[in-house]
Amino acid sequence: LGTIWKCPQHLDPLPMHGRDLGVHPDDLMETPEPEQESKQEVLENKDVVVQHVNIQGLGRTKEDLLGYEISDVFHAKNLIDVMKKAHVARQRLLRLGIFKDVEVLIDTSEGADALPNGLDVTFEVTEVKRLTGSYNTMVGNNEGSMVLGLKLPNMFGRAEKLTFQFSYGTKETSYGLSFFKPQPGHFERNLTLNMYKVTGQFPWSSLKETDRGMSAELNFPLGMTNHTLKWEGVWRELGCLARSASFAVREESGHSLKSALSHTVSIDSRNSAIFPSRGALLRINQELAGYTGGDASFLKEDFELQLNRRLFWDSVLSASLWGGMLYPIGGQPTCIADRFYLGGPTSVRGFGMYSIGPQSEGDYLGGEAYWAGGLHLYTPLPFRPGKGGFGDLFRTHFFLNAGNLCNLNYGEGPRAHLQKLAECIRWSYGAGIVLRLGNIARLELNYCVPMGVQSGDR
């Protein structure tokens, strides 16, 4: 932040904008006049007191909500500490999603109660509009759709959000209504209520599924872990996607009602979700259906583990492991919509999308148990073209994937289950190029060599 100079009578307000706080060393390091040098004083390490924190520009936002986000500014001990804590408070205010812009001004305290080392901090906020909308078109899965969205941010003045999305496609129509409510002072603790109707097409199973349901989801951190508790009630309608659908898929067609409780715990220390170079991820999910109603009864467990380590020459070694098991309750067979699927670019590369495991007449039926693993080596492009710029979005990719998917006989013991999962392992290896698309997705172009192919795999 450079060196801050202060005149005895007044400290000019320091506007802070954006990630660098708008404080430029060139502006702060100007050489003072010789005759004024004796009157100036460095405040970088001098104790100061934040006497007042003001928020200007509030409309419908409740002040008690913002008190939790800015209270840490009062604990600052010197000017540099004030600027750092004010910047953190600004980021916390923007995280609420209710302000379009937040600016910070720091000035000396004025008035009868002003202390010689007192400071006032002012946050100038610009609230987002009461109603925002979006419109876009999407093309994919042999379908085009128009998507309309409406959002009511800060609905009741405490960072609540109501969102409605409507999708009209050439084949199907979907919609969803969502209400989001965070706990004041703890944005990570929040409640989400959903109502939706969504239709999915699964060509690898010649299956079409329409879900109409509602859910309640509670998110909260606990120590180093993040937890999600969820209840979901959904009316499912399964149908055949084509006349050539197998008899096994036709048997699954019809209506069912699922009411399920689920819990997810995760620990994520990765520095990036798209191109991690260090850190680890552990996610464990449990789902129990049938005890709160509905005609689907099962216990479902699955996990994901990922480890990343940086090596020499900016290369990164990544290892991943997934697994899961579906246990039917009450002697009822499991539904095709609840089973696990394996294969494709997100699991075992070189195989068709979800085209591994049990199948009937070319339609893949999923399995009740699976495991998959991967070993990946990411390196910079050869000769480092575009280093420091566009070229850093690309990585060379070498990989080895393996996995298996099957149904288990739960009358047998764990040793028999492990033996069955170890049989007929599918695996593949290859190389390619990976492109990072912002911080939301990645695009891979790979040459794959599938091995261990079994009859019926694609």
How would you sum up this structure, described in words?
The chain is mainly beta and 458 residues long. Helices cover 9% and strands 50% of the residues. It has helices spanning 25-28, 63-70, 79-95, 247-252, 414-421; strands at residues 5-6, 41-42, 49-56, 99-108, 118-127, 132-140, 143-153, 161-169, 173-183, 186-202, 207-222, 225-240, 254-268, 279-294, 298-310, 316-328, 359-360, 363-364, 369-379, 394-406, 426-437, 441-451. A hairpin with a 4-residue loop joins strand 10 and strand 11. It is globular.
Would you identify the regions where 5 or more consecutive residues have pLDDT less than 50? 1-42
Q: Which outline best applies?
A: globular
Total number of helices = 5
Q: What is the ordering of alpha helices and beta strands?
A: EHEEHHEEEEEEEEEHEEEEEEEEHEE
Termini gap: 59 Å
Identify the strand order in the major beta sheet: 6-7-8-9-10-11-12-13-14-15-16-19-20-21-22
Number of strands: 22
Let me know the average pLDDT. 84
- Give a quick account of the main beta sheet: strands, pairing sense, barrel closure: 15 strands, antiparallel
Category from helices, strands and their pairing: mainly beta
Q: Rounded to an integer, what's the Rg over CA atoms?
A: 28 Å
Helix content: under 10%
Could you give the topology of this structure?
Elements: E1 5-6, H1 25-28, E2 41-42, E3 49-56, H2 63-70, H3 79-95, E4 99-108, E5 118-127, E6 132-140, E7 143-153, E8 161-169, E9 173-183, E10 186-202, E11 207-222, E12 225-240, H4 247-252, E13 254-268, E14 279-294, E15 298-310, E16 316-328, E17 359-360, E18 363-364, E19 369-379, E20 394-406, H5 414-421, E21 426-437, E22 441-451
Parallel strand pairs: 3-5
Antiparallel strand pairs: 1-2, 4-5, 6-7, 7-8, 8-9, 9-10, 10-11, 11-12, 12-13, 13-14, 14-15, 15-16, 16-19, 17-18, 19-20, 20-21, 21-22
